[in-house]
């Protein structure tokens, strides 16, 4: 594949690099995946050899598309495409993804347009329809014109006005002006008779359209035509190479047609009023246009758009065969520029096979020209398949931009225009380079000083200074100009702490950090401690930097870094050839910063500093002399290898000096003799740094002979004085090795407890078989850890472990416990432990371990036979055959009898009872439970073989079998021991049983009679139904009387009037006539309350004179002091109350 050549007006083109060719080649040859409309984006920039002040450089972004034919419309950062199949796709360019797709037409989409708000999109098609759709709602309108429609334009204020105006035209030659009226939409023909309408654009109130005759402009505000611009002479027919109309602003119309460009200025006679709107003044003449620019080109115009005060032209360079002849023979296609916002009209290419595939076409070019046709820049685009395309196969449109001028040679951020170059296979976004692009170009060509000057001059974002500065410093570093780079850092890095830190570490990596140290800031910004420490350490590496180190330590604030890393870098140089006085003085200063005045005093003394006495007094270092003598003595003992004696003298010689203790701890550690010093290391007064204690404990882990000392030390030292993590890290690699001892394991467990890792400590305690592990488990609530240490816990104390496992069976299932115990092997008596666990589990929940009940049968048979039979009776989850085999092997007879009974083999069970157990009473009990007469026959037959059993059978059959039946079938001559006594007992038992049955029957009959009497008395009670008047009257009565009467009568009050067809059994009036309460009896007699009381009173008066003594004439009412039916009163429980009790007068009279 050939590589594109980019040119400008003032520079000769040159080929791209191989790397650039590969990138473009990969893009050109990439395979498009299926069902995607926007597949990928490649940022493709042309490279020129021109002066750095040339700003006419355009960047391009390729948007690949698989669709072969479509029309497009763009607004802001979105692209709308119309396809041959009549579908419309709404896609976001910045996201490069399809966000909407909807069907609009049944044929090729010819034109698309937006309103100025970008809320509505209009489209027209060869199917003769015009569709206007909302992009944010479901609103959609369709208009049919019955002829192919080629151009459409919406009113820029379509979304804001209720008139919903648009213009459209097509092959019919009519330009329709559609407006929404009261009665619906109405079409007005603005123009006709001059051939098809090829393009139409609407700006403010001006509508411009092109037909075969030329371009016309219509003022919709004044309802009259403004002007006519004739079609350029010699231009191809419009259906072969369409005219291009672009409104540059409200009055400038750019026309590109064939090889001709015209810019027309429309004078609309508009005057602005105070609110910013326009006031239209009627025009009396059609001569309202000025052609402000016009020129001819040497190429075909495939698209045109404004570019500030200039123009961008998509040029097609004709070959030898590209002329009017080819235009006349080429299949026509449609293409139109945008209106309103941004419109990209992508061609409805119907068949590429019909093109004359000569394969010799030139690349399309993007040219920037002035209104006088002066070319300012030219770019040749390597679009895919350009060799086979014609002028009509390309299109150009532009996106709106907020800026209207091209000031200062650079576009402001966000103001730059966007251009869309469309070909059958590609969509390319182009935009001018901005200030940042110019700066990037300077950096790419090595003009770092000029790029820095441009940024400092205010071109581009302020954040670019960091990028330019970083690039400039990189350039100086590559050139090995380290000193110059270091001197520029304050200017380039300014107050950026991350940038300073990054360059500090970069200089350190290059081993050139000493040249940067004088420029490193200590505030505004203040860097991290590590940056300053690395810088100071770098100054210790070479004696030539030692003076700089000393001055830097004195000048830098001590709070911005830690002196310890620098001290650690200097101390190895003590007493070596690289040690200098400046380095010693710097080390003394660092000791002072770190608070180690004794060491600083020693160095100042060695350096013969005259102010050492003031230093001695200031820091009260009189003990330092004593310490120095003690250190000399310890050094002497160390040289003599008397480590134990030296360690024992440390408390006396070092006393309360934490720094001295730490120094000797590390010294003993270096000599690998620290274990002898550990017992003497103080934990308070002084308290050392954590590191000293950690080093001491780690030293005790190195040899098994020190492990007991390690354990005692861990238990005795306060946990707050050290971190357990380093010691744990030193011990863990020894786990499961030959050097692992119980003491070391226990020490590790203690460290785990200190570190809060109780689960790991629990695991170690379990492995060590610690008896107090159960208390530890409960204290730290480690029941989740039971799962891993079942065997160990059972071995430690099964009496504690079994209830624990049973109680937490929701955390560790029975299957897990059983599997671990079975896997224990010879470590313990796993079967016995398993028996204890399963027995406890069965008692807690008989169904929890049902999968192991077969195993549990055997375990009971081995370890607890007396519990086997209760288990067999309670469980339903064991296999009967297996359980029977186990009982047979272990000669468990009663268990065999039970299992045989459950297996449905009672005869064999009976044989076992009689022949093996010899227990006739159990045999009788077993047969009684089976309720099988044949089994009784079998029992009798079996007993005949043993005469002593016949007697026992006779004694226990009372209630089960007729003893006479057994006596009759006994063979003659069979001698039965104690037969007479047993017969006497049988007869006595039979009489007793008969007497009991009679007594029970009498009791049963008495209970039936009593219950019937009670039912009868309950049935004679009445139900009192009151009305509202009675209830009001009752409220006025004494509350105690009302409560007493209610209790005696035991009525149910219904607070509603009685209405119905029933009649009183005394007065025979319907209940609905009188508003009186009624009394209802279970005998179905009903009375008015007043009628019943009057009748009762009359009977009472008659009976009072006679003083009846029999129960047949008993009173209807009984009171507390009256005599009556005592039985009835007791039955009702109302005697004590003294309240009356009612009876049905009819039933009572009839019975008497």
TrEMBL record:
InterPro entries associated with the record: Beta-prop_Vps41, Clathrin_H-chain/VPS_repeat, TPR-like_helical_dom_sf, Vps41, Vps41/Vps8, WD40/YVTN_repeat-like_dom_sf, WD40_repeat_dom_sf, WD40_rpt
Residue span(s) of domain RING-type: 1064-1147
One GO cellular component term: HOPS complex
Database matches in Pfam families: Beta-prop_Vps41, TPR_Vps41, zf-RING_Vps41
GO biological process: cellular response to starvation; endosomal vesicle fusion; macroautophagy; protein targeting to vacuole
Ranges of biased composition (kind: Acidic residues): 1122-1133
UniProt-recorded name of the protein: Vacuolar protein sorting-associated protein 41 homolog
Organism of provenance: Camellia sinensis var. sinensis
């Amino acid at each position: 594949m050939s590589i594109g050549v980019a040119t400008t007006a003032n520079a000769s083109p040159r080929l791209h690099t191989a790397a650039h060719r590969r990138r473009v080649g990969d893009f050109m040859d990439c395979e498009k995946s299926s069902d995607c409309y926007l597949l990928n984006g490649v940022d493709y920039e042309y490279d020129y050899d021109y002066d750095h002040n040339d700003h006419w450089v355009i960047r391009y972004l390729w948007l690949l598309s698989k669709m072969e034919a479509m029309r497009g419309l763009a607004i802001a950062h979105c692209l709308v495409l119309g396809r041959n199949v009549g579908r419309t796709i709404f896609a976001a360019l910045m996201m490069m993804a399809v966000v909407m797709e909807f069907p609009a037409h049944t044929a090729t989409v010819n034109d698309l347009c937006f309103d100025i708000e970008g809320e509505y999109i209009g489209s027209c098609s060869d199917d003769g329809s015009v569709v206007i759709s909302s992009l944010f709602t479901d609103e959609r309108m369709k208009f049919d014109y019955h002829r192919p429609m080629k151009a459409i334009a919406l009113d820029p204020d379509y979304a804001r006005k209720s008139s919903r105006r648009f213009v459209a035209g097509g092959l019919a030659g009519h330009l329709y002006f559609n407006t929404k009226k009261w009665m619906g939409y109405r079409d007005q023909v603005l123009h006709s008779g001059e051939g098809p309408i090829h393009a139409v654009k609407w700006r403010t109130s001006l509508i411009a359209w092109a037909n075969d005759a030329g371009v016309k402009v219509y003022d919709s505000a004044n309802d009259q035509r403004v002007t006519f611009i004739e079609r350029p002479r010699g231009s191809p027919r419009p259906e072969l190479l369409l005219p291009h109309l672009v409104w540059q602003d409200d009055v400038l119309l750019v026309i590109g047609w064939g090889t001709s460009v015209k810019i027309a200025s429309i004078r609309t006679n508009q005057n602005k009023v105070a609110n910013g709107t326009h006031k239209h003044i009627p025009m009396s003449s059609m001569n309202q246009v000025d052609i402000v620019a016009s020129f001819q080109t040497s190429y075909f115009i495939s698209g045109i758009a404004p570019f500030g005060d200039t123009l961008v032209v998509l040029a097609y360079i004709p070959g030898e065969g590209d002329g009017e002849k080819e235009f006349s023979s080429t299949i026509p296609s449609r293409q139109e520029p945008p209106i309103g916002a941004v419109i990209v009209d992508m061609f409805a290419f119907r068949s590429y096979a019909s093109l004359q595939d000569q394969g010799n076409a030139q690349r399309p070019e993007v040219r920037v020209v002035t209104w006088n046709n002066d070319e300012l820049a030219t770019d040749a685009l390597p679009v895919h398949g350009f060799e086979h395309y014609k002028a009509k196969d390309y299109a150009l449109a532009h996106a709106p931009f907020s800026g209207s001028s091209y000031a200062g040679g650079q576009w402001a951020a966000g103001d730059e225009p966007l251009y869309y170059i469309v070909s059958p296979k590609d969509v390319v976004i182009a935009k001018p380079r901005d200030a940042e692009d110019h700066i990037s170009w300077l950096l790419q060509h090595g003009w770092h000083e000029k790029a820095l000057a441009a940024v400092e001059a205010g071109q581009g974002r302020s954040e670019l200074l960091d990028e330019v500065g970083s690039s400039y410093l990189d350039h100086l570093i590559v050139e090995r100009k380290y000193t110059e780079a270091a001197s520029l850092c304050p200017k380039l890095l300014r107050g950026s702490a991350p940038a300073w830190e990054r360059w500090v570490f970069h200089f350190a990596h290059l081993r050139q950090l000493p040249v940067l140290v004088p420029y490193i800031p200590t505030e505004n910004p203040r860097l991290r401690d590590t940056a300053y420490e690395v810088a100071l350490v770098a100054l210790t590496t070479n004696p030539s930097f030692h003076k700089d180190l000393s001055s830097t330590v004195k000048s830098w604030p001590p709070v911005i870094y830690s002196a310890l890393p620098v001290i650690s870098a200097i101390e190895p140089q003590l007493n070596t050839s690289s040690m200098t006085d400046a380095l010693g003085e710097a080390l003394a200063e660092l000791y002072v910063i770190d608070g180690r005045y004794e060491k600083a005093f020693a160095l100042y003394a060695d350096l013969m500093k005259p102010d050492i006495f003031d230093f001695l007094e200031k820091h009260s270092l009189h003990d330092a002399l004593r310490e120095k003598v003690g250190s000399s003595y310890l050094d002497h003992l160390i040289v003599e290898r008397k480590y134990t004696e030296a360690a024992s003298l440390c408390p006396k010689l070092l006393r309360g000096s934490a720094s001295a203790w730490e120094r000797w701890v590390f010294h003993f550690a270096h000599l690998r003799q620290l274990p002898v010093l550990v017992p003497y290391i103080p934990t308070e007064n002084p308290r050392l740094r954590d590191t000293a204690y950690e080093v001491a404990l780690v030293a005790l882990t190195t040899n098994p002979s020190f492990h007991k000392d390690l354990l005692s030390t861990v238990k005795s030292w306060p946990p707050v004085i050290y971190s357990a993590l380093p010691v744990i890290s030193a011990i863990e690699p020894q786990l499961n090795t030959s050097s692992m001892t119980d003491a070391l394991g226990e020490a590790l467990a203690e460290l785990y407890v200190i570190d809060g890792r109780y689960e790991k400590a629990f695991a170690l305690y379990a492995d060590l078989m610690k008896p107090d592990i159960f208390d530890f488990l409960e204290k730290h609530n480690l029941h989740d850890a039971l799962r891993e240490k079942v065997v160990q816990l059972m071995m430690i104390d099964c009496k504690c472990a079994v209830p624990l496992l049973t109680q937490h069976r929701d955390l560790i299932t029975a299957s897990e416990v059983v599997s671990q115990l079975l896997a224990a092997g010879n470590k313990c008596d796993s079967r016995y432990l398993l028996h204890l666990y399963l027995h406890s589990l069965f008692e807690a929940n008989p169904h929890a371990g049902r999968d192991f009940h077969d195993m549990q049968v055997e375990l009971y048979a081995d370890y607890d036979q007396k519990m086997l039979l209760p288990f067999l009776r309670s469980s339903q989850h064991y296999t009967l055959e297996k359980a029977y085999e186990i009982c047979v092997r272990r000669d468990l007879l009663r268990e065999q009898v039970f299992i045989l009974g459950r297996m449905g083999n009672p005869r064999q069970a009976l044989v076992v009872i009689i022949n093996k157990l010899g227990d006739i009473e159990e045999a009788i009990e077993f047969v009684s439970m089976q309720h099988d007469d044949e089994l009784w026959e079998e029992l009798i037959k079996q007993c005949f073989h043993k005469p002593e059993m016949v007697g026992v059978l006779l004694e226990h059959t009372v209630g089960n079998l007729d003893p006479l039946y057994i006596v009759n079938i006994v063979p003659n001559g069979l001698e039965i021991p104690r037969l007479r006594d047993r017969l006497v007992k049988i007869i006595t038992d039979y009489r007793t049983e008969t007497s009991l049955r009679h007594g029970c029957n009498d009791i049963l009959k008495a209970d039936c009679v009593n219950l019937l009497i009670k039912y009868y008395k309950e049935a004679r009670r009445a139900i009192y139904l009151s009305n509202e008047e009675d209830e009001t009257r009752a409220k006025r009565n004494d509350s105690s009387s009302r409560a007493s009467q209610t209790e005696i009568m035991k009525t149910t009050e219904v607070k509603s009037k009685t209405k119905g067809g029933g009649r009183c059994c005394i007065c025979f009036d319907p209940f609905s006539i009188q508003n009186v309460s009624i009394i209802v009896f279970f005998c179905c007699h009903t009375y008015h309350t007043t009628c019943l009381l009057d009748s009762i009173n009359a009977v009472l008066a008659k009976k009072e004179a006679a003083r009846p003594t029999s129960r047949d004439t008993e009173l209807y009412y009984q009171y507390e002091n009256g005599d009556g039916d005592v039985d009835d009163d007791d039955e009702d429980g109302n005697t004590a109350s003294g309240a009356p009790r009612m009876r049905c007068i009819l039933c009572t009279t009839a019975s008497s």
